[in-house]
Amino acid sequence: MQIEPGVIGSVQPARSLPRCIAGRMSTVDRKQINMPPANPIPFVPVRRKDRAVTDETWIVALLDRAPLGVLATVQDGQPFLNANLFVYDHEQRVLYLHTAHAGQTRGNVEAETRVCFTVSEMGRLLPAPTALDMSVEYASVVVFGKAAIVTAETEARYGLQLLLDKYFAHLRPGEHYRPIQPEELARTSVYRVTIESWSGKQKQAPEDFPGAFSYSPK
What digits encode the pLDDT tens for the residues 47-61? Predict the structure, then answer.
């Protein structure tokens, strides 16, 4: 992801494409599912108070624009990480993501519903006179909550359509592609992550930080 110097982690519009990301109606009808009332989400304290972000608008903006997240599950004491496309539903204040119908993630969620989810952005590298003081700009959100495998066809279709609206925002079902079919739902695991708490962190150096540069592999 390309991060402009000096703006990492700032509240930015979500590329103006996905209508669902702006908290408005997309191609799905939210009335089709029973939505619980959205309660305030508590913040988890972080060690570096000077880098903690407790602005919910900032956290939601990062969840909106992040193209990829990492879901952490566990089974029998063994942690498991899986990178996923995902979408944040503003009205329910939950995450939706999906995997194949069978696999490690589904098995772990069936065994243990507690999960952790994170998104991050990397900014410029910040050189220093000593190795210890070299650093990097970053922005990150960590979500703590419980995952559920969505079994109701209506909600599964709803969650998948939110994902399609985020990543293929210029395409519309029934016009550019065939709407989601029941047999396709049967081949997919859709997850709803109910957010119980979250945390945000950010480090942003001045734009004129001496020697700051963007990472580039050799």
Answer: 999 999 999 999 999
Strand, helix or coil for residue 83: strand
Residue 6 backbone class (left: φ over 0; alpha: ψ -120 to 50; beta: rest)? left
**109 touches 147 (CB < 8 A):** yes
DSSP 129: S
pLDDT tens sequence across 127-184: 999 999 999 999 999 999 999 999 999 999 999 999 999 999 999 999 999 999 999 9
Q: Give me the sign of the Cα torsion angle 93, 70, 190, 15.
A: positive
Out of 3.40.50.1240, 3.30.450.20, 3.40.50.300, 2.30.110.10, select the CATH number for domain 39-202. Answer: 2.30.110.10
Cα 194 to Cα 104: distance, rounded to the nearest angstrom: 20
Distance of CA 23 to the CA centre of its chain: 15
In order of 132, 140, 200, 210, the CA distances from 6 in angstroms are 23, 16, 18, 13
3-state secondary structure of 206: coil
